[in-house]
Amino acid sequence: MIGGEFNGNKARKLAYFLDTNLNKFKRIISYGSSQSNAMASLSVFAKIKNLEFVYITDHISDFLCQNPHGNYAFALQNGAKILFHKNRAEFAKNLATNLDLLIPEGVAMREAEMGFKSQAKQISDFMEQNNIKFDVFLPSGTGVSAAFLAKNLPNCDIFTTPCVGDEKYLKKQISEFCDISNLNNLHILNTAKKYHFAKPNLDLIQIWQDLLTQTNIKFELIYDPVGWICVFENLSVFKNKILYIHQGGLNGVQSQLLRYKRKNMI
Ligand SMILES: *Cc1c(COP(=O)(O)O)cnc(C)c1O
């Protein structure tokens, strides 16, 4: 958690662009789901950079449309223009001209590496100063965070679990922006049960609530519960103290909790 409205791993992913002169662009265009953490972060980023932000999503529930909340409301408040199209990626690509900075879904791009170089340095400095060695764990969507952290922290083992799709899908995603054959320190672990991405599930809300009451740390409610279940199910593979990376995303907790409430699961 690196503070402020612009936080979490999405801020890490955008660190390169934060320090780059974007004067030649008028707009940022991106696409993805209607409650995405990346959308929320991009809306803040665009505001900081004084650029328009256009976001294409393929679907929004009637409830969300009539009662904007969570990341969707946050993006709207930051001036995001949200468009709908069933082929969101293709539509975004066609819309973009050379005056637009096109950011792929989940900021899955090579430029995202820079923020993880500095995260890797923070971790290795901490380990050195405290004479400690970590096994690092973080849950994955696109795998950008885990892969770039592994690449830049070669002396540590980095463990992750796929929250979107399976292990094969995660590897394929990573291979699109990073040479995975060299990442010998990146380990993909699995959970015993497969959790459908972002779908309310009693195991997930249970561990999220346990974490909150026992540690007083509020985690994000889509990736982190799967991550923590994975950690507890695989404790024997860790050889060092575990560093679990909190990747922000707390803006989305409200809308996810509402979904649990509406399904009478809490
Ligand atoms: C986006 C996000 C992830 C997934 O990160 P990737 O780099 O796409 O793997 C995990 N946790 C949180 C809280 C996120 O917002």
Question: Could you characterize what this model shows?
Answer:
The protein has 266 residues and is α/β, with parallel strands linked by helices. Helix content is 42%, strand content 13%. It contains 12 helices and 8 strands. Strands 3-2-1-4 form a 4-stranded parallel β-sheet, sandwiched between helices. Strand 1 (27-31), helix 3 and strand 2 form a beta-alpha-beta unit. Helix 7 (113-130) packs across helix 8 (144-152). The radius of gyration is 18 Å and the shape is globular. 40% of the residues are buried. The model has no long low-confidence stretch (mean pLDDT 96). Pyridoxal-5'-phosphate is lined by residues 8-10, 37, 106, 139-146, 220, 223, 247-249.
List its traits.
four-stranded parallel β-sheet; alpha/beta; globular
Write the layout of secondary structure elements.
Layout: H1 8-13, H2 15-18, E1 27-31, H3 37-48, E2 52-57, H4 62-66, H5 70-77, E3 81-84, H6 88-95, E4 100-103, H7 113-130, E5 134-137, H8 144-152, E6 157-160, H9 167-175, E7 186-188, H10 202-215, H11 224-233, E8 241-244, H12 253-262
The structure holds pyridoxal-5'-phosphate.
Residues 8-10, 37, 106, 139-146, 220, 223, 247-249 line the site of pyridoxal-5'-phosphate.
Radius of gyration: 18 Å
The largest sheet has its strands arranged as: 3-2-1-4
The bound ligands are:
pyridoxal-5'-phosphate
Give the overall shape, derived from the CA principal axes: globular
| Structure summary, number of beta strands | 8
